[in-house]
Structure to design on (268 residues):
């Protein structure tokens, strides 16, 4: 049975949804430049084949803003425990890719496969950009949502600030100030990626993404020993720009994974 609503995670709440059904459980983890609605264009096809679980990180989309310290990885584990599948296929974009990798390292027995879309990998040596950081801090201090949205579009939406990209970045911009205050960093994973090399995986990245993001994707694929898919004309928002490529990657990787016998229960 399909279900969506708020669930308790630690001392907070997040919005989550479970499509129900008997298909293999597939979890969609959104980026830090959008919310779970970034996957909307993929849901009709995915829902016909998989039991799709997704949620909004605290402060993003339909989830309340945080008012206490939290960990994205701990919250994700709580969401998964709530819905109950024993084993899952994970699809993570940017921040969501880092969460997927962290969970796979923490509980490898629960992960069937990984599709990593321009993954943000904790522990990757992202270069400093003092000018960009200073601009971001000025906008946060001014509580300038329009300015933060424009900043996010300039940084992450090189393929164009259309309505869908703008809606995603505006949702993210609402979340960033609370995230800065309350989110605890999860453990670094970049130096441990080779331990996941036996897991079916694929990494996708757009050629219009920021150079450090492309470098991160390339090095992640190399350490996982998996295929790297380059997406021409795509920025840091591949679920909006190239949904068909992501669908193909999901089909490829889930087909290579062992049969999933851990469907678990649907939430009621």
């Amino acid at each position: 049975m399909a279900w969506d609503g708020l669930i308790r995670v630690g001392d907070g709440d997040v919005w989550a949804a479970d499509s129900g059904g008997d298909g293999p459980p597939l979890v969609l983890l959104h980026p830090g430049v959008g919310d779970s609605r970034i996957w909307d264009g993929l849901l009709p096809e995915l829902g016909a084949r998989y039991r799709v679980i997704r949620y909004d990180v605290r402060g993003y989309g339909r989830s309340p803003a945080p008012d206490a310290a939290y960990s994205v990885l701990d919250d994700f584990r709580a969401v998964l425990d709530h819905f109950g599948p024993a084993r899952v296929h994970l699809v993570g974009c940017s921040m969501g890719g880092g969460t997927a990798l962290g969970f796979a390292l923490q509980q490898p027995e629960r992960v069937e496969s990984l599709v990593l879309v321009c993954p943000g990998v904790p522990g990757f040596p992202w270069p400093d950009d003092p000018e960009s950081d200073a601009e971001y801090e000025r906008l946060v201090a001014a509580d300038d949502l329009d300015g933060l949205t424009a900043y996010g579009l300039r940084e992450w939406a090189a393929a164009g600030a259309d309505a869908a990209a703008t809606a995603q970045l505006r949702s993210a911009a609402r979340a960033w100030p609370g995230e800065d205050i309350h989110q605890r960093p999860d453990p670094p994973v970049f130096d441990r990626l080779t331990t996941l090399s036996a897991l079916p995986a694929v990494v996708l990245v757009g050629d219009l993404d920021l150079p450090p993001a492309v470098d991160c994707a390339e090095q992640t694929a190399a350490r996982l020993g998996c295929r790297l898919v380059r997406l021409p004309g795509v920025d840091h928002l591949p679920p909006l720009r190239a949904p068909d490529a992501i669908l193909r990657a999901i089909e490829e990787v889930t087909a290579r994974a062992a049969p999933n016998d851990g469907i678990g229960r649907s939430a009621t």
